[in-house]
Specification:
Blueprint lengths: L2 E6 L4 H11 L7 E7 L5 E7 L2 H9 L10 E7 L14 E2 L5 E9 L2 H10 L10 H14 L6 H9 L4 E9 L6 E6 L4 E4 L4 E4 L11 E4 L4 E5 L4 E5 L8 E4 L15 H7 L1 H9 L3 E2 L2 E2 L8 H6 L2 E6 L1 H18 L3 E5 H4 L10 E7 L5 H12 L3 E6 L5 H5 L2 E4 L12 H21 L4 H12 L1 H8 L3 H10 L5 E6 L3 H16 L2 E6 L16 E5 L7 H16 L3 E7 L11 E5 L8 H18 L18
Parallel strand pairs: 17-18, 17-19, 19-20, 20-21, 22-23, 22-24, 24-25, 25-26
Antiparallel strand pairs: 1-4, 1-10, 2-3, 2-4, 5-6, 6-7, 7-8, 8-12, 9-10, 9-11, 11-14, 12-13, 15-16
The structure holds 5-amino-5-deoxy-1-O-phosphono-D-mannitol.
């Protein structure tokens, strides 16, 4: 995905656009660029590969007073078509230097359109699909049916594009006007006082206005300093969805931490408490925009959970809880595999789509596939108004606040809590748990923010341990039952942040192959089941640790305080608070997040922006 901003107003656009890019850099950071139109009709563009600092430096080298103008747009890129180079960075400009475009998404029919542009004698200066759009705009504006009409030309181009895209156009002959459109990727309008913004998300303009309008699917917005007009791609008037942004600006800042991720790890007790807040009223579990009646929930005979990455690990945990509480079979599937497998779905299937961003293309397509098969879709999402909740039948929002670090942390915990609420709501509707049992499970959940606050106190010791292991090449993670998804999540965090070979295994699988990897000093992180849970899980895991130690590996054991059986077997012991088996992942994951971040930091990596990644992945 990429971050996009557009500004029209009375102030100097450049600092506003650059600051917006800084706030949206989490959306992609392969390259960044700006385009400014001044009041005398000049278009100025600069764009650079790499982090935003490279663009800052390039802009600083321009003579003072250049790049002055009150219309501007910017882009921060996560590359899809074309390598992350200066020439492939956005904005892309027409051959006459007058029109510019920035783009998030993919123009799927770019190949025939590019051939058409080249046949008109225009040479491309990038390898991107995006550049096609700006040349088409210029051809239309210069001699097409809408000659001299910027807005009409933009609409004509938009009608020809296929794929998923947000596009923003500007034109040197029309300072004070920006045309933007969305199809399947996000775009919001910021309504200021004598100034208007468009952005991929509200972070683009939160500093300047709290009044926003969400654009719907296949809508176009034309902004000027004082007005905005929304239509469909044919120019037919449409309504946007106005909303007020209640995020605190500080919530989107680092709050004294070196990285957003560290702040987000620290915010987990609050994220969990806010996600649970208001979901138990008058003795019943209630979901937000449920739009599914108890009758609907009673009809369900199968649940699919679809998600990617960390959200998928939350989905794996949902399976343990929902099956245990409801006796309804639950399948968990990677969203990218789901629709290609022809899963068996019908009206009595509930598909739970988990996505922090609500934009992930794989998950969105899985939702669409489920809906085509007439299944009921419930989205669990952290981003208001994103595409996945828009298309789902019902929504349960995680209220974790903005998650800026690319590695998901607080949203993972919030997703686990949200899926557990779904499990309890299902159990309640289907009568597989008595009301007092549901109330007890909910009360246990409500105690978890304090337990997470407690486990955060292990931070300094975990960080010291991680720093002492900064040179390791491989780390294995093993867990049983709910500890298995935690092992996968711990390995994912370490891979994506520290670029270390890390793998998670179900402990019982060790003897079926992975045990061959064990050797002297290999680091193995073991997630111990709760000793107060099923005794067999605990004792089998103790045996697994003995097997690991016998082969010379170094064990880091995450175990509940008071788990004395495991103490002599651990080279390093990280103690977590006692809690019930299903809730243990909410605390056992936290040291693994801290471990991965600290190890990455001691290797000198930027934990907010790991290489090759983007916060949400809007391509399949
Ligand atoms: O926005 P989503 O929850 O749909 O994103 C899913 C994954 O891309 C995401 O969890 C990814 O795996 C994170 N980088 C993991 O830390």
């Amino acid at each position: 995905m990429c971050g996009i901003v557009g500004y029209v107003g009375k102030r100097d656009a450049l600092p506003i656009v650059v600051e917006a890019l800084r706030r949206m850099e989490y959306r992609g950071y392969d390259s960044a660029g700006v385009a400014i139109v001044d009041d005398s009709g000049h278009l100025m563009v600069d764009k650079r590969a790499g982090r935003l600092e490279n663009l800052d430096a390039a802009l600083a080298a321009h003579p003072a007073g250049s790049f002055a103008g009150t219309t501007g747009m910017g882009h921060t890129r996560w590359a899809t078509h074309g390598r992350p180079t200066d020439r492939n960075a956005h904005p892309h400009v027409s051959a006459d230097g007058k029109a510019a475009v920035v783009h998030n998404g993919i123009i799927e029919n770019f190949a025939p359109l590019r051939a058409e542009v080249e046949a008109a004698g225009i040479e491309f200066s990038s390898d991107t699909d995006t550049e096609t759009a700006v040349h088409l705009l210029a051809l239309e504006y210069d001699g097409g049916e809408h000659a001299g009409d910027f807005i009409g030309s933009a609409y004509a181009v938009l009608r020809r594009l296929e794929g998923a895209f947000t596009l923003v156009f500007t034109h040197a002959d029309h300072p004070g006007t920006i045309v933007a459109a969305r199809r399947s990727t996000p775009l919001v309008v910021g309504v200021g006082d004598g100034e208007m913004f468009v952005g991929s998300d509200v972070a683009a303009f939160i500093e300047h206005t709290r009044d926003a309008v969400e654009l719907g699917q296949d809508q176009v917005v034309v902004i000027t300093a004082d007005d905005y007009t929304i239509t469909d791609f044919d120019g037919v008037s449409q309504q946007g969805k106005p909303f007020h942004i209640d995020w605190d600006l500080a919530a989107a800042e680092k709050g004294g931490h070196d990285f957003f991720m560290l702040k987000e790890i620290a915010e987990q007790p609050q994220a969990l408490a806010d996600t649970l807040l208001g979901h138990f009223e008058n003795g019943r579990v209630v979901l937000d925009e449920q739009r599914l009646s108890d009758g609907d929930l009673r009809e369900i005979d199968k649940v699919f959970v679809v998600a990617c990455g960390t959200a998928y690990h939350a989905g794996m945990l949902a399976k343990y809880a929902i099956e245990h509480w409801t006796r309804v079979p639950v399948e968990v599937e990677l969203a990218s595999e789901f629709r290609y497998r022809d899963p068996v779905l019908d009206r009595s299937t509930l598909v739970v789509a988990i996505s922090q961003s609500g934009e992930t293309a794989d998950t969105l397509e899985a939702v669409r596939h489920a809906k085509e098969q007439k299944a009921l879709v419930l989205a669990i999402c952290n981003t208001n108004g994103a595409q996945i909740p828009r298309e789902a039948d019902a929504v349960l929002y995680t209220h974790a606040g903005p998650e800026i670090g690319v590695a998901s942390t607080k949203c993972f915990l919030a997703q686990i809590a949200a899926t557990y609420l779904v499990g309890l709501a299902l159990a309640q509707a289907r009568g597989t748990k008595y009301p007092d049992e549901v109330a007890r499970e909910y009360a246990d959940l409500e105690r978890m923010p304090d337990a997470v606050a407690e486990v955060l106190k292990t931070g300094p010791a975990v960080r010291d341990l991680a720093q002492s292991l900064a040179d390791v090449n491989t780390v294995l993670f093993v867990g049983r039952h709910v500890g298995y998804p935690v092992a996968l999540e711990g390995a994912l965090k370490l891979k994506e942040l520290a670029y270390i070979h890390a793998e998670g295994f179900a402990a019982g699988e060790l003897k079926h192959g992975p045990i061959a990897l064990l050797e002297d000093d290999l680091t193995v992180i073991v997630i111990m089941p709760s000793p107060s849970g099923r005794a067999v899980l605990h004792s089998k895991m103790v045996s697994n640790i003995r097997e690991i130690q016998a082969r010379g590996a170094r064990t880091i054991v995450i175990a509940e305080s008071g788990d004395d059986a495991v103490r002599p077997l651990a080279d390093h012991l990280i103690e977590i608070p006692q809690c019930s088996t299903l809730l243990q992942p909410l605390v056992s994951t936290v040291p693994l997040q801290i471990f991965a971040a600290a190890l990455a930091q001691s290797r000198g990596y930027d934990v907010d922006k790991p290489r090759n990644l983007a916060k949400s992945v809007t391509v399949e």
